[in-house]
Amino acid sequence: MGRVTERRRVVRVRDGAVSTRPDTLVAEEPLEIRLGGKPLAITMRTPGDDFALAAGFLVSEGVVSRAEDVANIVYCAGATDDGSNTYNVVDVQLAPGVPLPDITLERNVYTTSSCGLCGKASLDAVRTTARWPIADTPPVRVSPELMAALPDQLRAAQRVFDRTGGLHAAGLFSPEGELLDLREDVGRHNAVDKLIGRALQSGQLPLSRTILLVSGRASFELAQKAVMAGIPVLAAVSAPSSLAVDLATETGLTLVGFLRGASMNVYAGEQRVDLDAAATTGAST
Predict the structure, then answer these.
(1) Which pLDDT score, from 0 to 100, does residue 110 have?
(2) Where residue 45 falls among pLDDT bands split at 50, 70, 90?
């Protein structure tokens, strides 16, 4: 089974000195997700939490919403021509009565990377298929001071990043700022799917009283995953895309970008951010 990290030879140049040494790199391998034995999607991921990744992907696609919707997830034996198991192919069996999506090259799913939908069609697809409308969730209100502390917590918990410097992270926080779960992966979307999949497996969906923080930027795909899991607040340390902002506005998601120190941009859903507290703090400094 693939490992999270691997060692490779590297030639280092430091201040004019040249040396050769092994370096620790994050592992990247393909994961094929099958549904009822039929190929559904392939993603490049860091091995680990593969069953949670598959489950979270299905939540994001609107296929499942409860742990009971999934009968079984297994690695596929004989995944190669010689019959060996690569641990890079998983098959998800849905519970009786859970409808299968249309698995074709033109299937109507909602992530831009898997279906090629864009603009208005993507927004409509997510808004009409979300099982837990964000606007109907219990009220969550956070202060800018609390939000500002989250990136340091996320970074401090990234154990594999410390060894490789090459992983994205996604963290779930409570409205009080407690780190509930964190996953690392070469892909931000995979890290988020692993979080959502673990929540599905433990019966915690919808995640209606959580804050999702992602390293890097906030794409439409990440905003979609937050909405499909019922997460009311999505924050990123970098910029959102225009379509992510459109989706947040359409669905009521609070979207925060450029969360760096005490600075942040609130692009949508500002009613969940205590801006009066920020104004008071700014006036007193």
Answers:
(1) 37
(2) very high
- Please enumerate in sequence order all residues whose Cβ is within 8 A of that of 160, keeping only pairs 6 or more positions apart, or say none: 4, 5, 26, 46, 167, 184
Bridge partner list, 257? 265
Residues 89-109, mean pLDDT to the nearest whole number: 77
From CA 272, how far away is CA 232, in angstroms rounded? 9
Rounded CA separation 77/44 (Å): 20
Q: Is 118 a catalytic residue?
A: no
Do 123 and 100 touch, CB atoms closer than 8 A?
Answer: no
Q: From the candidates 115, 149, 180, 277, give the one annotated as an active-site residue.
A: 115
CA distances from 4 to 33, 143, 158, 164 (A): 19, 36, 13, 10
CATH class of 134-284: alpha beta
Q: Cα–Cα distance between 274 and 234 in angstroms, integer?
A: 15
Pairwise CA distance, residues 124 & 106, whole Å: 17
Q: What is the 3-state secondary structure (H, E, C) of the chain?
A: CCCCEEEEEEEEEECCEEEEEEEEEECCEEEEEEECCEEEEEEEECCCCHHHHHHHHHHHCCCCCCHHHEEEEEECCCCCCCCCCCCCEEEEEECCCCCCCCCCCCCCCCCHHHHCCCHHHHHHHHHHHCCCCHHHCCCCCECHHHHHHHHHHHHHCCHHHHHHCCCEEEEEECCCCCEEEEEEECCHHHHHHHHHHHHHHCCCCCCCCCEEEECCCECHHHHHHHHHCCCCEEEECCCECHHHHHHHHHHCCEEEEEEECCEEEEEECHHHECHHHHHHHHHHC
